[in-house]
């Protein structure tokens, strides 16, 4: 292609405005979150209260940090103390509240509890409880890491007992700490066959018939205990397509026992199909877990995970259209030498030291500016998403550019604007949430998108 033709094509692309229409989107966005689990167990027991407060602000404070407003609390099973050496990864040994049959220890899990209370103090307003495994003494293998063959691991005579365990924890947190978990999920990636004894984390396989059994028993246990503020969510499979497969296999009583559909979006293609199924069934839909470490070697400045995170968030909001978007663990173990997470700390040491990763700023490009209550708007561009905050008359556009430098023009003529400038925030290999200003011309904004970048545009005093 000649240089002249290339220039003409680039000019044509730049002048093709991307439409943002207020009627094209969905309401009911509840916010952004993280599971606590392993990092909560470690960080919540740091010796330095000052360092703990810093991390809590970085994650949960809307002004000082990411402003995550949703937490998923992991009800630990608690590994069999007779298994030596313990195979669980650093932080993965989340304590259970029932170390032996008939014995309760409500002082257990101090770390996660400290983080949860600190998060609520900073504005977290939605909490879900979930389980990775039943207590070891309810399992067939005698271990919370899974069955020997990767199959069902909850003993046949323990389904009611497991439901009672989970709901008793929910009841305790409500009565003692004033925390109402809106949902409780007894499952985590249950159809997966990688939950085998000797694994490095808690996990339990449940075949579809056993999923239905524990879902119904958990819903009944909540009802019998008068815990009307808590409903069951499920099934939290690793893949969107696995979630669809499970839901299509559930009987009517099981579906009626669920108030919320949870899915992970690590893999799968049926995002739009799951969205429509949830709508038909009248169920709330959450993207309850996703995380990425990118493709590069361990490096706190890694950009491959930034690109993967931004692409996933935008794709999920556009196609799945969940009410909430929840990252797996905001803090990851530095000793694992990977690029997962927004903050790294060595879980083996627990010395109150931490480092912020590039992925932290990529998450901030979304969570700091698209706030709970916003209407998510579906643009004509697959690389961007927008949101309108009616309470603050604010329009936000986030665009992800994985390729080389390019321009993007957005047409805002469907909105009324009282000002001609916008704030721009950009994360690139060089910048972390760098702020600048942009002028609006003829109801259009033109963005010069850097290579490997995430850009957020904030327009205030915008009306529909």
From TrEMBL:
Residues 16-235 form the Endo-beta-1,6-galactanase-like domain. InterPro entries: 6GAL-like, 6GAL/EXGAL, GH, Glyco_hydro_b. Keywords: Hydrolase. One of its GO terms (molecular function) is hydrolase activity, hydrolyzing O-glycosyl compounds. The keyword Cytoplasm does not apply. Gene3D superfamilies: Glycosidases, Golgi alpha-mannosidase II. This is O-Glycosyl hydrolase. It comes from Paenibacillus catalpae.
């Amino acid at each position: 292609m000649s240089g002249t033709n290339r220039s003409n094509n680039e000019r044509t692309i730049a002048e093709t405005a991307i439409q943002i229409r207020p009627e094209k989107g969905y309401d009911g966005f509840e916010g952004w979150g993280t599971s606590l689990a392993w990092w909560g167990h470690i960080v919540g027991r740091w010796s330095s209260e000052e360092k703990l407060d810093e991390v809590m602000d970085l994650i949960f404070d809307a002004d000082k940090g990411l402003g995550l407003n949703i937490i998923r609390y992991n009800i630990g099973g608690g590994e069999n103390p007779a298994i030596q050496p313990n195979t669980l990864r650093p932080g993965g040994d989340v304590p259970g509240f029932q170390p032996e049959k008939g014995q309760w220890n409500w002082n257990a899990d101090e770390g996660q509890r400290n983080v949860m209370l600190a998060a609520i103090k900073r504005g977290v307003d939605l909490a879900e409880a979930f389980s990775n495994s039943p207590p070891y003494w309810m399992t067939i293998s005698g271990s919370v890491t899974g069955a020997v063959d990767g199959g069902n691991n909850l003993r046949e005579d323990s389904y009611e007992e497991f439901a009672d365990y989970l709901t008793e924890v929910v009841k305790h947190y409500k009565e003692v700490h004033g925390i109402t978990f809106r949902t409780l999920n007894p499952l985590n990636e249950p159809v997966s066959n990688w939950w085998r004894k000797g694994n490095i984390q808690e996990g339990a396989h449940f075949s579809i018939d056993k999923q239905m059994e524990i879902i119904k028993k958990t819903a009944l246990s909540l009802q019998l205990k008068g815990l009307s503020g808590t409903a069951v969510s499920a099934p939290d499979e690793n893949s969107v397509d696995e979630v669809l497969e499970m839901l299509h296999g559930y009987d009517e009583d099981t579906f009626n026992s669920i108030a919320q559909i949870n899915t992970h979006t690590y893999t799968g293609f049926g995002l739009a199909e799951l969205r429509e199924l949830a709508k038909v069934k009248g169920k709330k839909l959450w993207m309850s877990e996703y995380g990425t470490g990118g493709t590069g070697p361990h490096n706190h400045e890694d950009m491959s995970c930034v690109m993967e995170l931004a692409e996933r968030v935008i794709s999920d909001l556009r196609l799945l259209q969940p009410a909430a978007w929840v990252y797996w663990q905001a803090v990851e173990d530095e000793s694992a030498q990977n690029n997962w997470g927004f903050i790294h700390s060595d879980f083996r040491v627990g010395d109150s030291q931490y480092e912020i990763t590039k992925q932290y700023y990529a998450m901030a490009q979304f969570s700091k500016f698209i706030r709970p209550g916003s209407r998510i708007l579906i643009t004509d561009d697959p690389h961007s998403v927008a949101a309108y905050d009616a309470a603050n008359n604010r329009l936000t556009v986030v665009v992800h550019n994985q390729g080389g430098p390019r321009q993007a023009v957005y047409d805002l003529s469907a909105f009324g604007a009282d000002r001609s400038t916008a704030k721009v925030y950009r994360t690139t290999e060089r910048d972390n949430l760098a702020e600048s200003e942009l002028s609006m011309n003829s109801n259009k904004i033109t963005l010069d998108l850097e290579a490997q970048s995430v850009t957020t545009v904030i327009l205030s005093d915008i009306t529909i």
